[in-house]
Amino acid sequence: MATAHKIAPFLWFNGNLEEAVTFYTSLFPDSKIAMINPMSAQFELCGVTFMALNGGPQFTFNEAVSFFVSCKDQADVDRYWNAFINNGGKESQCGWLKDKFGLSWQIIPDALGRYMGDPDRAKANRVIQAMLKMQKIIVADLDRAAAG
Q: Which domains does the chain possess?
C-alpha cells in the first residue's frame, strides 16, 4: 500500500471502516477509494491520502487530532456542517464538530482566517469574541463583528 506522500494519516475504526470511508469520499471533492477490504482501506480526500484500519474498540478518536476543512463561503460551511450533523454528528464550539465515527472536524470559513490576521487588532478581537459564541461559524456574524 504505497502512498503518494511519505506521511499519511492512519485512522483506526471500530467495525465501521467501510461506512466511514464511503461517507467521507462522498462528501469531499477530488476523493476516491483506492483500496478497501473488511480490515483496511486506502482512500483520498481532496487529493490527500488516508490509510485506515478496522482495528476494534481498543482505541478511539479524540479532539487532540482534528481535520481542518477550509470553506470558501457560508454555502460551503453549511454544506459540510449539515452533512456531518445530519448524519449523526455532534456540534461543538467554534466551528468544531465530531462526526458519527468520533472523528473531530473543524469547518472553518476562509473569512475567519482573514479577520483573525487583520492588522487592526481591535477588529480581529471582535471577530474572535463573536466566533467564541458560535457552534457553526456564521460568516455574516463575523462580518458584523468586524464592522464594529
A: 8-52 (3.10.180.10), 62-148 (3.10.180.10)
